[in-house]
Amino acid sequence: MKLGALGENRLLHQILRHLPRGRTRKVFAGAGDDCAIVEIPGSKKYLVLKTDCVVEGVHFVRGTNASDVGWKAMMRPLSDFAAASGVPHFSLITLIVPQQTKVAWVQGLYRGLRRAANRFEVSIVGGETSNTTGPIAISVTVIGFVEKRRAVSRRGGRSGDDLFVTGWLGGALKQKHLKFVPRIVESRWLTKNFSIHAMMDLSDGLGADLPRLARASKVGFDIELENLPVARGATIDTAISEGEDYELLFAVSPRARNSLERQWRRKFPKLLLTRIGSLNRKSQIANRKLPRGYLHF
Amino acid sequence: MKLGALGENRLLHQILRHLPRGRTRKVFAGAGDDCAIVEIPGSKKYLVLKTDCVVEGVHFVRGTNASDVGWKAMMRPLSDFAAASGVPHFSLITLIVPQQTKVAWVQGLYRGLRRAANRFEVSIVGGETSNTTGPIAISVTVIGFVEKRRAVSRRGGRSGDDLFVTGWLGGALKQKHLKFVPRIVESRWLTKNFSIHAMMDLSDGLGADLPRLARASKVGFDIELENLPVARGATIDTAISEGEDYELLFAVSPRARNSLERQWRRKFPKLLLTRIGSLNRKSQIANRKLPRGYLHF
Fold it and tell me: Are residues B167 and B279 in the same domain?
């Protein structure tokens, strides 16, 4: 069987069941979550680890401004840091490029990588380059830390929790997917001031991502479609399915709602925060059978 | 200008001059060294970071056994950990593969990655996959720790130091480059028992790698060609230039020589350790002009 027939999700699922655990004492979040969150011997913080890649023809089209590609390559794993409420510190870059690539293109790429790293005070401490006969690929690894009590994964959502998203959904493929700013500041504020039960960043669209959070938390969900923050020019359909929003989706106790909404408006007056629904007791299996069922599609 | 004309080393040199340092307090070793070695807030150990990649058509030919490819992809960054005397803990894997790749091939690849990780008790804690229209590429990041007094870089070599290499050089392209075991155990023993001034792993061949260590340490070197441990079937020329040996090259005070050689034979009776020359006062500039001059080529 070929990969295309099996699908990436099932492949990952098969592979991830058999990974070695080595000398690791405790893994707070591992393969399958936004970031790996692991214990550091003798430290009060967790280590947060994320790798991601952008490939020409998949994540950007040929001819895209090189600096925009670099920005996106760095900001994608940083958006996963926002999901985990991690503070990024270090980055390593693997650059796979054909020999005929223009030096000016690579310089532009690094300009974008550097600008994105500087935005969040990340040090680029190393990397590798390799030749290829194929499309350009840039793999970025980010390493950082998070206080143990502030680490968040997809797994802590509880039945009854309110579901919130930041910003507007949909329409990101026009521009935003090359220009977005990961919600790290907002995530750090959230975990400082509230008990966030589960969180993730929306990269594949709410319709694909929310069922993942629900499955990881072993709960169901109910979405009030009429409340979705649909971006101008987008429809409910594209807001759910298009992806590349890089907004935060999180679950929090309904008891926190009033205080959260009030304090959020004061702290981030320019960024929308919307309650889009809640988690409920519907079983994991029901969600599997109807992955978008509760979105009423 | 195109990359092919500029050359990878000069490209990296240009790029690395301008990297952001972010919130990093202290970088013991950074871009350009085998591993990045950085301070962890509140920890007595350094964090050790390395990313590397293997690309089809560059690091392995199409049709190579998938498990061997996985082994090599994991062992290459682990060989850099040996150079730094780091203890690897975690790994992240980015897999860039065309849709028409056989699922069995990917399973074989992960078998090799897992076997290699298990050998050094490394946990594979995450990763990403992406589609591509080009050749298969596997990027592996390894994260670990090293005691501050045992961290080694390329930069600490001193004039008068003896230069040693482990094992035999040359002939690695036949078999060894897919089957090698990084010298992590040997490196950890060395830094526990001796003051190792500078160390690196030999991946591009002694003729390319030794000048890098000398330049980083701001010294010159003298090699006694007649003492080189040339592998069976190899010549002095291929032993110097072929690469992929994944042996250790290190600099140590000549006062340690007798004790080192005696204790090494007792501890590692099956692995050759050879003094191949010494570091000297020749200037960095002289080495630049004659990158292989002191190898008498």
Answer: yes
